[in-house]
Amino acid sequence: MSAEKILVLNATGKVGRNVCRALLEAGYEVYGTTRSSKGTLAEQGVKPVVCNYTVRADLDRAFAETGARKVFVITDYFGAAKKSASLEFEQGRAAIDAAKAAGVEHLVFMSVADAEFFDEHVKHLHAKVALEKYLHESGVPFSILRPCAFFENLDDAANWNPLKKGVVKFLTMQDCKYCATYDIGRAAAIQLKDPQTWLGKSLDVIGWQGDLLQVAAALSKVSGVPVKAKLAMPIFLRKLFLKDLHHMFLYYELQKGPRGTPEAFKKILPGALSAQDWFRFHGRYSNGEKIAPDCATVRSPV
């Protein structure tokens, strides 16, 4: 019996690559959109589909070429939508409409935990709320994943926060709920394999909770090296230059959001990664040096 096909949008991104990895491990035949055939998807075992995942005509062609009847949909406010919530909504709507036209049997949409509870200043979540509503009304069979802060943001050299030996930095020192992008993919597989339970429903993806000192302790435990916890920038600069993210972190810090818990998520995915687990899974510092001898020999894709 041949494996079921699934199309992963933005498969080369921070989330998409690990979603592809998890879906491959779950036994799916994974197709991933990419804007260049020269990428590394094929090395992962993913079948690359050259496609601009924000353009309806490209999406129609991708569904036709692959024959996929399952799809993982990601929208990107900061990148593809160029910090425009209205453009992000249009791009997400194009994906939902293309899925409907293709007769998709299950669309998994990645939103954000508690998206509807953040204040108006958190502009990068406005489209997520609107797209969830559009998806409910679309007639497309769907489920929704709502992740919290990514562990991957602890090693985000593209945004001036590389993971270095002996130090870990983030935009808050306070208690925060984290998840691994790999667990987003594993949660997607759970929903896809049990549509009777999950169609029309949402799941908060929250694997671990702790403050930055606890994150540092986890890295120290894995690496065997003392680790300092530091803010990636002072709070007054976060407020001044990253207003959108500043207000998101205020929700984490002052209102202790999101409402979901690691305990609830682990009832669905018992092996959800903790901070220690994620550092072992991630495997290397930004400069390529291994975190510890027992870490992955191949760095996790981010």
- Form type: globular
Strand content is 15-25%
Report the biggest beta sheet as strand number plus sense, adding barrel if it closes: 7 strands, parallel
The whole-number mean of residue pLDDT values reads 95
* Class from helix and strand fractions: alpha/beta
Describe the protein in words.
The protein has 302 residues and is of the alpha/beta class. The chain has a domain at 5-148 and 181-207 and 259-272: NAD(P)-binding Rossmann-like Domain (Rossmann fold, 3-Layer(aba) Sandwich). Helices cover 39% and strands 17% of the residues. The protein has twelve helices and twelve strands. The protein has a seven-stranded parallel β-sheet, with helices on both faces. Helix 4 links the parallel strand 4 (70-73) and strand 5. Helix 4 packs parallel to helix 5 (126-138). It is globular and about 55 Å long. The two termini are 32 Å apart. 46% of the residues are buried.
